């Protein structure tokens, strides 16, 4: 579903910058293309500029520089109510003085749709989110999850082609949040609308998205499908922000065929994929996922000694904290398989990993 | 877990505590101390309010239906006059009792008060009473002709009827007077003569003015409150101080400032002449009339409208209007269908507050109202201070209170008092 060559992107941020005070840029030179029907998530810590981007797309904030195109048309001077974009807000923003059905009818009424059709569409939208019997209730009489469904139905009832969601699940408890993630994903697949979703929760982003844009400091650090984001992070921030990640620093002593030889601080020389390291003689940070580390397995290229400091039993795997190269926060996830090594605290073991699982990145 | 046993009374089905007493009794006992402490904490204030507020007000309201001036000074004639049917000819017994009472009242120097009281029921009887009392000591039986000899008015039935009404301490006469009715000796209510009907139209005028002031406050205050609620905190705090500044200034100072502003040779009229809106001979009369009252009262009561509106608007999440716009509503639709309904509790609170304050406003109309800008409270004050007809003042005040309570009830029925937000 990623942007196909030749086809016009559905949403296009072209060199967009945003500043509130004229001194600092909240969004620095944003370029982003979103294809029709795609589910793109803007993920990042708070203050990273992701919500500002969404608000600029919705029309509530004006871009300081650059242009936003919707279906090829520049929208910088189009007021929000003419953009025909559905939006789900963080705290649902249901109108408290209207019933659920009136809330849903609102976008249809302002579009001057015939009364009979309004009723039909409202009921259909409510049933789509399994809230068919709740039309007569006031929002205050609904639980958080139910309000969320109504807000979703309201953003979809007027059949917009683009729906924006601003941390819509933030206020729900964990279980309900996970459930709603699947529901939103299924609705997206079912309706084929384009969704731009903002969140700071990485598992939410990974679960639902076709592509994730990781934001930090007003810049998209990486824009990629979830699996690529996790397995092939472009830089140390993404590696750190998405999932768990062991970091080892060292100096690059040689780069050949995309593989860097790195002299670890207080450790041996290892091989790593040269993804984002500056070159021979520069410092680099190696990133290895905890589940890709092997213990006591012979025949792998990168090996060293590590001492077990702590073991935590988590059912499906055992979380092992080790001291490796003087780092005492080196985490290894040992799967709870029949043949796994029985570890003991205080013992020394041999740890190692495949060169493909280790990425040499920039230093932060 | 150990075994938990629930004790339940076999007969009543009440839940019992582990020692066998009903759980509810036990709960009451345990709450007693905290309740007593709460009461003791508010007791001083309660006493103060009772002594300085509730009891005097009740006492004054009581005067509206009870006036014992006649009965206290003329104890012999009062029961006889009350017993009289009000239509048959006056008897010798009535005349004798009145003459005897007059002699005592003259000695006690209370005859003036009695004369005033009777005069309220039938004008012209004041001098009749004081004159007759002066000669009463020399009168001899039969007293009825003796009275008639002093003044021909004693032959008129109206005089005796006025005495009968005054002799009745518990009387609806003052409330009747307060709504432009006359309570007759036969116990009927008849409309007051045309030229003496002032209070009903005054009540209407007061309500209209209070409503007008409320409307002006709403129209002027709503945009200001909106601006304050949506500006950054620094600017809105400055605006808030500007709103509160007159609040901290003496009411009298503000009202007199309006006199300087609005009078014929005042700032505003000078400005109008200067710009050429009017010429020097035709300056607007902006003060000492209803215009002055409305302008000054609107200014003084404006903060009472702005503050509740502001606090309500502050609490409206900006995402509501944004949501409305993203759903396709124009700025006006978003305001009218989403923002405005959310401010209704503030409008209700501010409106009620301004209206109730305006309906009883006294100082401002007294200073800038002139002749036709006087409101009901000014007449209450007049009867309290000048005419000394406290009973009528109490009756007028009682009706005013009833109107306010009625409007409050109406508001509760229509809008709901729970929907009111004062801050």
Q: Hey, roughly how much beta strand do the residues of chain B contain?
A: under 5%
- Unreliable parts of chain A: 1-5
Helix percent band of chain B: 55-70%
Q: Total number of helical segments of chain A?
A: 8
**CATH class descriptor of the largest domain in chain B:** Mainly Alpha
Tally of contiguous helical segments of chain B: 19
Run of helices and strands of chain A? EEEHEEEHHHEHEHEEHHEEEEEEEEEE
Strand content of chain A: 25-35%
Mind telling me which CATH architecture of the largest domain in chain B this is?
Answer: Orthogonal Bundle
Which protein chains make the most extensive interface, counting residues with beta carbons within 8 Å of the other chain's beta carbons? A-B, 28 and 19 residues
Mean pLDDT of chain B: 88
Largest sheet of chain A: 6 strands, mixed
How would you characterize the overall build of this protein?
Chain A is of the alpha+beta class. Chain A is 23% helix and 35% strand. Chain A has eight helices and 20 strands. Chain A has helices at 50-58, 100-110, 115-128, 144-156, 174-191, 202-208, 226-231, 236-241, and strands at 11-18, 27-34, 39-43, 65-70, 73-74, 85-88, 162-166, 194-199, 211-216, 219-224, 246-256, 259-264, 269-274, 283-288, 294-295, 302-313, 317-324, 327-335, 348-353, 358-361. A six-stranded mixed sheet of chain A has the order 6-7-8-3-9-10, sandwiched between helices. In chain A, strand 16 (302-313) and strand 17 (317-324) form a beta hairpin. The radius of gyration of chain A is 24 Å and the shape is elongated. In chain A, 41% of the residues are buried. With 423 residues, chain B is mainly alpha-helical. Chain B has three domains: 6-63, no CATH class; 69-193, no CATH class; 199-419, Orthogonal Bundle (MetI-like fold), CATH 1.10.3720.10. Chain B has 19 helices and four strands. Chain B has helices spanning 23-63, 69-73, 77-83, 92-107, 111-121, 125-136, 143-150, 157-167, 173-178, 199-230, 233-248, 251-262, 267-275, 290-314, 318-326, 331-359, 363-368, 376-385, 390-414, and strands at residues 7-8, 15-16, 181-183, 189-191. In chain B, a hairpin with a 6-residue loop joins strand 1 (7-8) and strand 2. The two termini of chain B are 49 Å apart.
């Amino acid at each position: 579903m990623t942007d196909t060559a030749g086809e016009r992107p559905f949403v296009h941020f072209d060199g967009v910058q945003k500043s509130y005070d004229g001194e600092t840029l909240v969004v620095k030179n944003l370029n982003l293309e979103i294809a029709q029907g795609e589910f793109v998530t803007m993920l990042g810590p708070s203050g990273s500029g992701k919500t500002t981007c969404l608000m600029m797309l919705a029309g509530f904030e004006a871009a300081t520089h650059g242009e936003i195109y919707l279906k090829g048309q520049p929208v910088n001077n189009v007021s929000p109510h003419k953009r025909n974009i559905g939006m789900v807000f963080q705290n649902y923003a249901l109108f408290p003085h209207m019933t659920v059905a009136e809330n849903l009818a609102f976008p249809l009424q302002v579009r001057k749709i015939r009364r009979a059709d309004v009723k039909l569409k409202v009921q259909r939208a409510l049933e789509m989110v399994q809230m068919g019997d709740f039309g007569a209730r006031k929002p205050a009489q609904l639980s958080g999850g139910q309000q969320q469904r109504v807000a979703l139905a309201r953003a979809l009832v007027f059949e917009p082609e683009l729906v924006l969601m601003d941390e819509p699940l933030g206020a729900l408890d964990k279980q309900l949040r996970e459930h709603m993630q699947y529901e939103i994903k299924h609705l997206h697949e079912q309706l084929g609308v384009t969704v731009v979703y903002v969140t700071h929760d990485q598992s939410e982003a990974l679960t639902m998205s076709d592509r994730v844009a990781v934001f930090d400091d007003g810049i998209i650090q990486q824009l990629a499908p979830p699996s690529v984001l996790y397995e092939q992070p472009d830089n140390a921030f993404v590696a750190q922000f998405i999932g768990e990640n062991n970091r080892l620093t060292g100096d690059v002593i040689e780069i050949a065929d995309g593989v860097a030889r790195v002299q670890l601080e207080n450790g041996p020389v290892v091989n790593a994929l040269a993804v984002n390291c500056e070159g021979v003689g520069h410092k680099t940070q190696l990133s290895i996922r905890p589940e890709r580390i092997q213990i006591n397995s012979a025949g792998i290229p990168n090996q060293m000694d590590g001492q077990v400091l702590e073991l935590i039993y988590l059912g499906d795997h055992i979380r092992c904290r080790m001291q490796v190269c003087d780092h005492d926060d080196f985490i290894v996830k040992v799967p709870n398989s029949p043949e796994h090594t029985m570890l003991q605290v205080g013992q020394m073991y041999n740890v190692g990993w495949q060169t493909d699982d280790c990425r040499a990145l920039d230093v932060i | 877990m150990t075994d938990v046993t629930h004790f339940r009374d076999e007969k009543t089905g009440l839940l019992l505590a582990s020692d066998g007493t009903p759980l509810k009794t036990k709960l009451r006992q345990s709450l007693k101390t905290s309740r007593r402490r709460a009461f003791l904490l508010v007791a001083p204030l309660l006493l103060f309010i009772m002594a300085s507020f509730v009891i005097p007000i009740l006492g004054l309201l009581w005067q509206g239906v009870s006036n014992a001036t006649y009965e206290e000074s003329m104890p012999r004639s009062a029961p006889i006059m009350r017993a009289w049917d009000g239509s048959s000819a006056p008897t010798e017994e009535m005349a004798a009792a009145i003459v005897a009472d007059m002699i005592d009242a003259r000695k006690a120097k209370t005859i003036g008060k009695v004369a005033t009281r009777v005069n309220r029921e039938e004008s012209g009887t004041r001098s009749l009473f004081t004159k007759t009392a002066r000669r009463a000591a020399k009168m001899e039986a039969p007293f009825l002709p003796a009275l008639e000899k002093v003044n021909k008015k004693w032959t008129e039935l109206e005089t005796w009827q006025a005495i009968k009404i005054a002799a009745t301490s518990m009387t609806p006469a003052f409330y009747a007077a307060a709504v432009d009715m006359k309570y007759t000796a036969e116990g009927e209510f008849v409309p007051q003569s045309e030229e003496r009907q002032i209070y009903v139209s005054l009540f209407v005028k007061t309500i209209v003015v209070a409503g007008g002031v409320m409307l002006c406050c709403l129209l002027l205050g709503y945009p200001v409150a909106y601006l304050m609620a949506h500006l950054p905190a620094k600017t809105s705090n400055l605006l808030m101080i500007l709103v509160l500044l007159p609040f901290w200034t003496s009411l009298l100072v503000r009202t007199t400032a309006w006199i300087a502003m609005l009078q014929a040779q005042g700032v505003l009229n000078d400005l109008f002449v200067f710009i050429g809106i009017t010429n020097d001979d035709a300056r607007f009369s902006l003060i000492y009339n209803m215009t002055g009252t409305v302008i000054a009262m609107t200014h003084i009561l404006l903060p009472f409208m702005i503050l509740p509106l502001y606090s309500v608007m502050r609490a409206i999440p900006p995402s509501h209007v944004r949501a409305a716009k993203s759903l396709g509503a124009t700025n006006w639709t978003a305001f009218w269908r989403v923002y405005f309904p959310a401010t209704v509790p503030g409008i209700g609170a501010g409106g009620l507050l301004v209206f109730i304050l305006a309906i009883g406003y006294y100082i401002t109309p007294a200073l800038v109202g002139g002749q036709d800008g006087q409101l009901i409270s000014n007449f209450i004050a007049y009867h309290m201070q000048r005419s000394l007809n406290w009973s009528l003042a109490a009756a007028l005040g009682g009706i005013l209170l009833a109107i306010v309570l009625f409007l409050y009830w109406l508001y509760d029925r229509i809008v709901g008092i729970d929907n009111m937000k004062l801050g």
